[in-house]
Amino acid sequence: MDDKHRIVIPARPRKKLMDMCEGEVVMTARTREHILLYPLPEFEALLARLDQLPDLDQASNDFKLSFTANARDETIDRAGRLLLGADLRERAGLTKGVMLVGRGNRFELWDEARWNAEAAARDAREGAVPLPSEVTGSFRF
């Protein structure tokens, strides 16, 4: 992250984001671990699914509120940079080193130290308990 709180989106995911949504993205944070980064069409589809959840159910309402209350529209600029607003940056504890992690229809932005600690913990869990065949199915690693 630079001094103006921008990150440069790497070329390959940037091209996909530009093709998919012309750089229009939505960032949000449900937890304090990381920022979620969605291409605008993916976020809009997610909102349509969230609208199906009942407002009168406390758990559903809490989930919807935590997901949407922190949402911020942003645009990737011509230089491939994305501004990280103060509220989301502080919520996720992002400082200088930021990791961009692909997660299917979205990306996650992690503080580099937190990501490395989580990755080490994941490695330890995977080494301690092998995945059952029902989980891995026909995956080849």
What report would you give on this structure?
- By secondary structure, the chain is an alpha+beta fold.
- The chain has one domain: Transcriptional regulator MraZ domain (Chemotaxis protein chec, 3-Layer(aba) Sandwich), CATH 3.40.1550.20.
- The chain has six helices and seven strands; from the N terminus they run E-H-E-E-H-H-E-E-H-E-E-H-H.
- Strands 4-2-3-7-6 form a five-stranded antiparallel beta sheet.
- It is globular and about 45 Å long.
Provide a concise account of the structure shown.
Strand 6 (about 100) and strand 7 form a beta hairpin. This protein has a five-stranded antiparallel β-sheet with strand order 4-2-3-7-6. Strands 1-5 form a two-stranded antiparallel ribbon. With about 140 residues, the chain is an alpha+beta fold.
